[in-house]
Amino acid sequence: MRGILAEVRARGDAALRELSARFDGTAPEAFEVSPSERAAAVAALDPQTRADTEFAIANVRAFAEAQLATIGALPDFEPRPGVHMGHRVIPIGRVGAYVPGGRFPLLSAPVMTIVPARVAGVGEVVACLPPGAHPAMVAGCHLAGADRIFRIGGAQAIAAMAFGTESVPRVDKIVGPGNAYVNEAKRQVFGPVGIDQLAGPSEIYVLADATGDPEMIATDLLAQAEHDPRTRVGLITTHPPLAEAVLAEVGRQLATLPTRETAGPAWHDYGEVLLCDDEAAMIACSDLIAAEHLQIHTADPHRLAARLSNYGSLFIGELASVVYSDKCSGTNHTLPTMAAGRYTGGLWVGSFVKVATHQWLAPEGVRAVAPPAVRQSASEGLEGHRRAAQLRLDRLQGG
Question: Which of 54, 318, 356, 396 is at a distance of 20 to 30 A from 86, taking alpha carbons?
Fold first, then answer.
């Protein structure tokens, strides 16, 4: 991995061509998708697919706009006379969105990364997707609002966006999910460039009591399991008969599921059913796991939801399926995995802005803060600090 990043950093487009030929079997002369190619990809979309994509874009945009409205500027806060401070909400200058190819054309992927960036006011959004990605993915990037689209995949795409090449501009932050190689590349470039998160395979857990519907729970578990054979799926319940019924139902549904070659290994290798003595134990178990997707199928799901703290995204009641969020309902599907929900949330419009502070002081403010700053600097042995604090006080006092 370090070699791939170093090659792209040192040799730019030439390295990208060699790496694309090695890993993707193609070395395009031009990496960027031209305006005419973008238009052709949109024109080739099935009308219903385009309508559904635009439906998803509208919902994600509306939710992102509502979220952005909660992030207010603080122009002037005066904690004591003459000491003024505040913050501005500043969009990131240029963002790179990695759009995975995956086993299936995930048309929702560019919507989730590009639309919130556009709503946040990002200056330029660059999208990279593997050369072999379905043409509909190019159309999705275009409709979502990408300024530039490049046919570059894998770790070399992350390197191109992190360091810049002759064709690809250097970005300030990279977002979007990918395979293990993409994830590791993001980890290694972090610092000079920002990243959204380090995400592992997908996860879904369901909290259920005696009112849970075995067929619905099994269906939702398998829906997520078909993402990847390493998907982590689980049921946490206080009702043993439901646990037995879900186990039987998963087996029944797997027999006819067309994607069982993926979903089956996920269930057999990573699936689990956890029995808890009571609701308190169920909550403690769930908060320890901090699942990426957490569904609540209980008699009073809203009451239970208020008691939960650790998750990527919460789905309250049996009508709220993860699938709706994955595709088009409006909440983002780029979420923390591997228990990262203990300390962070998922991708949202706030991921694309900086809350940057400022301050200014009037003379009475200097008179209030300079003396303690002088004393603290002296006690820490930082003479330069002490002098900087004292100088302004001396000037005000005519000294």
Answer: 396
